[in-house]
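ARCHIVE RECORD
Type: protein–small molecule complex
Small molecule: zinc ion
Source of inputs: curated submission
Record status: active
Notes field left blank by submitter.
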Amino acid sequence: MENLDIARVLETLADLLEIQGANPFRIRAYRNAINTIESLSRPIAAMAEAGEDLTELPAIGDNVAAHIVELLETGHINRLDEVTAEIPITLVELVRLDGVGPKKAKKLFDELDVKTVEELEVQLDAGTVEELAGFGKKSVEKIRRSIEDYRKHTGRFQIHEAEQLIEGLLRWVEKAPGVEEIEIAGSLRRRKETIGDVDLLARCEGDGTPAVDHFVAFEGAARVLGAGPTKGSIVLHSGLQVDLRVIPTRSFGSALVYFTGSKEHNVVLRTGAVRQGLRVNEWGVFRIPEGEDPEALGKEGGERLAGATEQEVYSALGMAWVPPVLRENRGEVEAAREDRLPTLVELDDIRGDLQMHSTWSDGKASIEEMARACTKLGYEYLALTDHSQAMAMVQGLTPERARKQWEEIAEVRERVKGIEIFRSVEIDILKDGSLDMPDEILEELDVVVISVHSFMDQDRGTMTERVLRAMAHPSVDILAHPTGRLINRRESFELDVEAVLVAAAELKVAVELNANPNRLDFSDVHVHRAKELGVPVVISTDAHSPAGLENMRFGVDQARRGWLEAPDVLNTKSLKDFRAWLGRRRG
Ligand code: DGT
Ligand code: CA
Ligand code: CA
Ligand code: ZN
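STRUCTURE (tokenized, with ligand):
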């Protein structure tokens, strides 16, 4: 069982206890423990197996430790079974809706017998919810909107969650009898922001039954959906489904193309092939003899041209190999045919990170720790971007504290060599588009990063005006997480992105692609448009700890999905060139 699986089960327990009205301190203890588990780099299952004392981990007490051990040993938690005997487990879906919360969920259940999101919708339509004490018209509207959001996301996992959830499974399937190679396909290989299910391919000659049997016997499988000679499907404890397909060597490349998708990319490949008298399917590329009906020939009928590797499949179709991140039917097939695919930016091209927080605001590490972590990543520069004072709950910097911080930055510059530490602040764009820092501070900052963190429910016109006004301030360098979305949790705020990008081009302001997998904001489509308009994109991690710096790869993948090349990304510049860019308007 992966750490995230454990965290999810505990989260369910905490949510249900909260609905039952349990002691808030106890709930807090669960939530803190869940945070610890989610950020742990080592698997808890291995620690427990080695007999390590889990209570030595931060925020994990006897109670939670006992739950974890029980879960690992028996696959369930008694306490959770007790609770679900009293209230339905589906109530957790309700609490997670924005605008519901534990008290309201309890009320909906007690008074209207609402147990699921579907039942809530029925009651909303019947008008009974707004009659309940404590609800009213406004809160009903809010609930309706969050149900819409919920529908869009339900069942999809964030990419970093999916990656983590299958780590143990990958190690397990590699040991399956007869399997010579495992590849990830589907949306996970295309590096999409969210993953519906995980598709694995196993290269294996002959009968695949033993391999599939091994796969479905994985201890982390909560359910087995099916097992046959060529395919098995399981559901992990987290609810994530994983399919494994067994493929012979001669067809491994064509199967990889087929199951990597996207479906739309496959359709374009297939129709293009037909025009050339070819057929492409998961078994290979075949030439169909003149006048023959491909259907009648069987799935491997005709003259086999390719199949073992992706390269030979694309080449048989008369085009260059297409990187999986581009396979979304956005012109990549045509570009591959004309040999003008982009040379996509790579993680190795990144020379600095331009958004991160320290203990001066809501970060968990000191400036020095962050700087040292950046040197380990081989960076030439970083910008320290603690919040500004409007973010009072995270000790945002006042002008006075900003000056104090510069003193510490100067000291760290002395101690940590080989990296430039830029003075910066992630400055709040206030309600009216003014900046949360006086001009004299702005002028002394090396890098000025601005972002919206409040009044996100403004209408499109107001929000766009607000952001445009902020960007027009002559000190501004980078607009961070421009749409404010949180994947699976919060939609983008209303914003005319096109207008913002056009203004950015004019004002020579860069836009951020926030690499935190909870944000990935801008999206692939937005950064592609930025590239077209010549707006530089900055890929930043927004790290709150040294570990957070490692999210850079998610941002790079997203940039690649948007067709970005190294010159499109500002933080691929050398220190010297980046400095020159910073001086673009002053010079
Ligand atoms: P997901 O799982 O929703 O995140 O997205 P995918 O792309 O992983 O989709 P999935 O798991 O349904 O199927 C994996 C790949 O298999 C998909 O990207 C393309 C291929 N595929 C599946 N069904 C079809 C189909 O009906 N036609 C074609 N051409 N390809 C398909
Ligand atoms: Ca999939
Ligand atoms: Ca699938
Ligand atoms: Zn921010």
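CURATOR ANNOTATION: The two ends are 57 Å apart (CA to CA).
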